[in-house]
Amino acid sequence: MDDGSRPAVGRRGIMMGSLIAGLTLATTRVDAEAIRTDSAGLVAEEVHLPVGDGTLPAYAARPDGAGPFPTVLVIEEIFGVHEYIADVCRRLAHQGYLAIAPELYARIADLSKMSDVQQIIREVIARAPDAQVMSDLDAAAAWAGRNGGDPRQLAVTGFCRGGRDVWLYAAHNPALRAAVAWYGPTGGATSAIQPKTAADVATALKCPLLGLYGGQDAAIRVDDVEAAAARARAAGRQVEIVIYPDAPHGFHADYRPSYRAADAADGWHRMLAFFRVHGVGGS
Domain spanning 31-277 has what CATH number? Predict the structure, then answer.
């Protein structure tokens, strides 16, 4: 693959020159439950994305072959691109996709060394400008297009905070064909660098969006999600919301106690079907 240059320090500095090895230190883990997908028949590796102020580390996986392959941008949780996110990319690659997950917080902190969730939220997540996140996702899509991905078949998925960014990116990039948000907040505080919520951009979605949410999510009210979806539909946008009544937040995260295997599997199948119905992969 064309990885671009090796990690460089830009004007503001890239704090993470490489991805997290293994699982994150920042949350309670149940390592024995974590799904581990092999890379047989795949090209799966850490790569580096050229961006305006240096290069960002990312994880990419695709089938071993010439392509072009339908492309899925994978947006991390707040914990960085660690083994769980890399495994999601490999799972997608086994389904015929080029999947790429950029480390969106590499400029701000080295998430491999952070173990306090509230510190991550306060000192990392809150300091990441939405415009920069959108630009980095654009860079990931461009890299994929140069490295075996089909820019005509582009989708995005993301988890937790990454689910919120799915909504924003679906309102940002007109090249997207489909978006799937896993328990992404639709409301919350705004700031000068994060000026809009997912609900705020719901009327501007540029592709169909599927939202997968837990009915027992203590942080995200189902009513708020449904209200955001209703705003989108009223503006002529296509949004489908699936609520898993007994699932908590993070129900797809198989390395955490929040994991719910049946709901995660159902959501995964729905995601793949949604991509294919909207022209990203499959026939």
Answer: 3.40.50.1820
